[in-house]
Amino acid sequence: MENISYHIVITRKNQVLLSFLKIRVVVNGKEIYPLLNNRPVVITVQENHPKIVVTDGFHHTKPLELVYHHLHTYYFKVVCAIGDVQLAAGFLMLALLYLVGFYSGIFVLKLISFFPIVYFLFLYYINRKEFIQITPV
């Protein structure tokens, strides 16, 4: 029987929220590899059907089982559910609605201005399994 090695290459998207997290890749529940900001991690596995999970300790992805048929290398990118544009738009909406509510005296606009923060906190704390995502490249 031939001893074939398989490879997993994982990179991290350059996002604001991901830059604050210490992302790690766990292979088969045993081996842990830190995932730095601008450097891909090349993981060599000897057996077929490895399971990988990406985590920061609080958030984690669903286990992903890889099956090697013809390809011997899989490429993945770790992304955050809240992108940079979505984060900026949320804070812009918060500031704009709060200022309009402040100057007009309408309390409902001030209250609505906090919905982006509630949405981001929902994604961060309640949707823990979907906050960090692993996507094929």
Characterization of the model:
34% of the residues lie in helices and 29% in strands. The chain is of the alpha+beta class and 137 residues long. The strands form 2 sheets. A 4-stranded mixed sheet has the order 4-1-7-8. Strands 3-2-5-6 form a 4-stranded antiparallel sheet, with no helix packed on it. Strand 2 and strand 3 form a beta hairpin. The longest helix is centred in the last third of the chain and has 21 residues, at 84-104. It starts with 5 loop residues before the first strand and ends with a strand. The mean pLDDT is 91.
Q: What is the fold's blueprint, element by element?
A:
Blueprint: E1 6-12, H1 16-19, E2 24-27, E3 31-34, E4 41-45, E5 51-55, E6 64-65, E7 73-80, H2 84-104, H3 107-112, H4 115-126, H5 128-131, E8 132-136
Helix pairs in contact: 2-4
Q: Helix and strand string, N-terminal first?
A: EHEEEEEEHHHHE
Shape, principal axes of CA atoms: elongated
Percent range of helical residues: 25-40%
Mean pLDDT: 91
Largest sheet: 4 strands, mixed
Uncertain segments: none
Strand order of the main beta sheet, please? Answer: 4-1-7-8
- Care to count the β-strands? 8
Structural class: alpha+beta
Percent of residues in beta strands: 25-35%
Give the termini distance in whole angstroms.
31 Å
Radius of gyration: 20 Å
Number of helices, counting only DSSP H or I runs of 4 residues or more: 5
